[in-house]
Here is the input.
Amino acid sequence: MNMTNVSQALDMMGQGMAGIFVVLGAIALLVALMQKIDNRKK
Here is the structure.
């Protein structure tokens, strides 16, 4: 196995996982904001 290929693959995988966490964080913030705006009494 070529170590440069492994290193590049790990780097790409790390960037992909970071992107997923950024998107999930943005969705969580959006949901929290929508709950704060829409505070109807139940």
